[in-house]
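Quick start: what a row looks like.
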Amino acid sequence: MTIDASGAARLEAWLSRNRAKLVQAARMTVSSLATFGLAAGLGLPQAFWAVITALIVTQSSVGSSLKAALDRFLGSVLGAVYGGAVALAVPHQGGITTAVALLLAIGPLSVAAAQSAGFRVAPITAVIVLLSTTGSTLGPIAFALDRILEVGLGCAIGLAVSLVVAPARAARVVREQAARTARLLADQLEVLARRDDVAIDAKGLPLATRRSLDRLELLVGEAARERRSRLAAAPDPEPLARTLLRLRHDVVMLRRATREADLGADLAAPWAAAASAAAARLRGIAACLEQDGRAPEEDPALPRAIAAYRAAIDEMRRRRLTRDLPTDEVGQIFWIAFSLDQMRRNLDDLAERAAEGRAAPAG
């Protein structure tokens, strides 16, 4: 069977779009097979728990894999030890005695799980230790030890595969997510330049931006975990996320101001030029974040456009056109100028963050 040029191009495009998913699937496959082989070689009675743990731990980035491994192992150890202690203290063969044992085991562990998400697996492990037929055959202590060994093996293999097989650093994923967020902000500014505020909601841009920032915050936590564990030497990603959050605030303020102010013929063109220049600046920084290229140079188009908007305001004041406008509307016109200046400073800060974090070496 032959594939023509268009089919090859479509296949290449599909592979490019789904590369991360395919790599993740390969990592999960390798970790599950390796864990099963080692568990069988060690003679663990319930190798499937090790395989399940390895699949859970093998996440999309090294930072998320590290968190999943720690949460899974600590929760399992706590649940197995405490469940085994309850099983020894309260002999149960069904009925009321089993209900009492479950109450004593699940109650405190559920409180711990509510306090920390890392202990969510602890009540589940305790229930397995108390109710499993294998546990009644081996005894609570032996079963708890087997459970800890199985989970520990799965955590170790899953984390090792995440580090060795096409490792995805959270710091790199942070930059990609930051680039997506910057482009969403640029999309909003381009719509605002056309004074089409309704189109922003129609396209769902504010919600998409908020979700992108939420995702970025989660990835920043994973990247910080990698830095603390010496698995990566990338700069602290939190300033990058904070700057994007400030830029989102700038866009929200500009949207409110342009919605309430009638810019008219004197300010509409300068405003459109300033918003378009800011959008272009955001897209340039997004390209740097995504491609790890040369740091984006300062674009003189944005300062010139902001200066032109301020000059247009001064011209309106000279011609006394602002005297006929409502006070609130005049305030919004000046607020747009202030917000544009603030956005320019935040864009310069974002460019610096993009430059200092590019091509960060792994730890």
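That is the whole record. The mean pLDDT is 81. The chain has two domains: 7-164, 175-356.
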